Amino acid sequence: MGESSEYKTRKRPVTTATALEALLRDFQADAEERGSEATKQRRRLLLRGFRAGLWVMADRPDLNEVAQALRAELFGHRLPAVADEENELCQSGTEEEVVK
Fold first, then answer.
1. Which of 25, 26, 51, 93 suits a disulfide with 97, CB 3.0-4.6 Å?
2. Mean pLDDT along residues 8-28
3. Domains in the chain, number
4. pLDDT at 100
5. What pLDDT was estimated at residue 26?
6. Sign of the dihedral defined by the CA atoms of residues 33, 88, 49, 12, in that order
7. ∠ CA(10), CA(84), CA(53), 5° rounding?
């Protein structure tokens, strides 16, 4: 690219799923920042519920997929393998959250 180059970088459009995941990550960081362990645990549980609700809103899965995700969350059942897992909204939380 020489002096006369007209090349300009553009921001790529942010998908709804990407924007929601960034929002949830920010809330997760805020939730872990202060408060008693009981308060942090309550916030983690609320965020897990929001993640599930936002996943349904963003991806619009069929009812069977929603039922499988809820069973996995509530009863620890495994989710079926998915070939393309670029959307992380359906995940039950961050690794840090699971460790705690």
1. 93
2. 79
3. 1
4. 47
5. 94
6. positive
7. 85
User: Which stretches of the chain are DSSP H helices?
Assistant: 16-33, 37-59, 63-75, 95-99
**Helix/strand/coil for 27:** helix
Per the structure block, which two tokens stand in for 81? 């393998």
Closest CA to 55 of 87, 94, 96, 15: 87
pLDDT at 74: 85
Whether residue 28 is contained in a domain is answered as yes
Q: How far out from the chain centre does Cα 3 lie?
A: 43
Residues 6+ apart with CB under 8 A from 79: 68, 69, 72, 90
Burial 8-20 (b: 16+ CB within 10 A, else e): eeeeeeeeebbeb
Output the CA–CA distances (angstroms, integers) from residue 31 to 13, 34, 58, in the order listed.
Answer: 28, 7, 23
